């Protein structure tokens, strides 16, 4: 059977990226069908720590976050909390990192340079080895699940159809149309948006495409209640890779394990000890914290070789748009990504330069600064 309608665009994945794209595409008058193997925000989106920041080192990423955060701030459903991001930068990285701060400020992001002593107003930490700190008060976090459902509801109100619990098992191009074999029947559309998160590489393989996205498991550890003098912003220690922030009376924290790639499931409790050791070195007061194992969780990042997203038209493949591989930046960038994907779909020039994120970059030698991954 088929879905009974002809569609202009098929979006694969109903995480925050796919849901936002569905809304913006429907807003432009396109007939949109979304195929989701589970439920909206049921994958990486719902397991995200939901941080949003514009403290990047490339103009494209800065602008994607800046415009997205502005949209979230206008949406009550987003639960946008501008609690700030505080970055602790080692001496060796401080001179080059200031180039990124200058760029952020030129683009209208209110990032501040702080000495380690000045930064103590936001959190208590040991300053050993730091060259400086940066803080942006418009960074913060959102309710990723509530935000995704808001996009789903907006897309549905404009006629988009969401086929949930529907797995895509085959993708072929016939003439000017993509034909998708799914557990709900056949779906056809001339345009396809691959926004399937950690599964994006597998979705590409269904069409015979090599899209370099793979899953990487991430742990989020949650403490018991702590009495702190003030809520903590999202803090990222660039030296150790540890991040943490307040979540009510608790602290959530994590640290990427670069070896934890592939389809691994469940909490990796062996990663707790090295994470805490690195965290306590910078934040000795964490020694007083207890751990709430039941409140801790895990999820997948969708990572690419350079830890940057793949966005836009797939070269040499008519009607295939990528919006995947965000490597932990999906919630931060979703709102703006949806706008540029809609522009790409209609043959318009995106309002943000996508060239650093296009697939073609894998054919070039990468240059420039690599943005941090948290």
UniProtKB/TrEMBL annotation:
It comes from the Bacteria. The keyword Glycoprotein does not apply. It is an enzyme of class 1 (oxidoreductase). Keywords: Oxidoreductase. Residues 8-343 form the FAD dependent oxidoreductase domain. The keyword Oxidoreductase applies. Pfam families: DAO. Its EC number is 1.-.-.-. GO terms for molecular function: oxidoreductase activity. PANTHER family: FAD-DEPENDENT OXIDOREDUCTASE DOMAIN-CONTAINING PROTEIN 1, SARCOSINE DEHYDROGENASE-RELATED. This is NAD(P)/FAD-dependent oxidoreductase. The lineage of its organism: Bacteria, Thermotogati, Deinococcota, Deinococci, Deinococcales.
